[in-house]
Amino acid sequence: MRLGVVGFGGRTCGLVYGPFREAEPDIQVVGIVDPDENGVRQKLSESDRKKAVFYETLEEMVCKAKLDALVIGSRCNLHAPYAIKAAKFDLPLYLEKPVAVSMKQANDLEDAFEKSKCKVVVSFPLRTSPLCAFAKDLIQNGAVGNPVHIMAWNYVTYGTVYWEELYRDYKITGGLFLQKATHDFDYMSYLMDSPITRVGAMATFQKVFGGKKPAGLVCSKCGETDTCLESPINRKRNNSGWHNNDHHCVYSLDCGTTKTGTNEDASSAVVEFASGAHGIYTQVFFSRRDAAARGSTVSGYLGTVEFDWYENSLRHIRHHKPFSDIVKAGSGLSHFGGDLELAYDFFNLVKGKGQSRTSIWTGIQSVYTCLAARESALKNRFVKVRQTGQSG
Fold this sequence. Notes:
Layout (H helix, E strand, L loop, with lengths): L1 E5 L3 H14 L4 E6 L3 H7 L2 H6 L1 E2 L3 H7 L4 E4 L6 H8 L6 E3 L7 H11 L6 E3 L2 H4 L1 H11 L6 E9 L5 H4 L5 H4 L2 H17 L3 E9 L27 H7 L27 E8 L4 E7 L8 E8 L2 E6 L4 E6 L5 E5 L9 H13 L9 H20 L3 E2 L8
Parallel strand pairs: 1-2, 1-4, 2-3, 4-5, 5-6, 7-10
Antiparallel strand pairs: 7-11, 8-9, 8-15, 9-10, 11-12, 12-13, 13-14
Helix pairs in contact: 1-13, 5-6, 6-14, 8-11, 11-14
């Protein structure tokens, strides 16, 4: 099975040589579009290194590499432009999230796929994770009755990545609703079986990260490493960092400003569903260690279903019977098992069987929700969420 890849960074490399190879051992990376050829070749397996050809454009790769499928894992602001080009070809596509970072990109993407034969798997592994799928089955089978409310949370213990790596470039990421909540808004709509139609959001900026340290500053060039909690030595001492290597300063001018655009320390949203139900979502990016938490609580008159991926457990409480259940799930899987499920979906598309559970339309709809949340937080008002299929 011959894959063409646009953007072979760490995430794509982990997918290809992790869940993708597990689902389909005989895949070969035969074509790559990426400006960092030397860096990418170091990531490739020995067999792929010998066979992979680098191309200047997606179109050239499709025409010359005899591909069975495409993978787009470029920087976030390039997802939509490359996907629009891919829409012209009848090749199964695995597309990283967020599928767009602006309203124009999302509109253009919707137009491109309206009549396209290209079938897409969007990287929304939370929706397809076994724990979420189990919760969905319970809810569909009446565990809560009619779902009336959902509460979802995400306490991110590796959040410094959004201030010390390329993710801090707001022009690339579009902010953390698009980076993180795109997953969560999607699975919330999935569990509630209804699209989000209105959002009221707020965000907290530069109370923790960001600041006025010099641009380009790294820990190894800083005189405050003994006292700074984000220095490699203190992260190692306190077991408080997702890595302990030299890195860019999380308090520098490079992190942006509220005027030029910057990521938020924390953000929250109240959401309304087309069904009339509502819910709340919150995400925090300065949490550490055992504070890691991601999950949701779905409530109806008949019961409550609550789960957390980090706890790998689900709880079902019956409101009108004296019984409650706790179910444990497997652990140690990429994105809680969702990446492997998406890999199976992707390769089933390549083989001409099965359907994508995370189509391009789920990706675009999530972007519309995230853009509404971002606008709401910046303008301090409720914002209607554009729905796919609407003109204008």
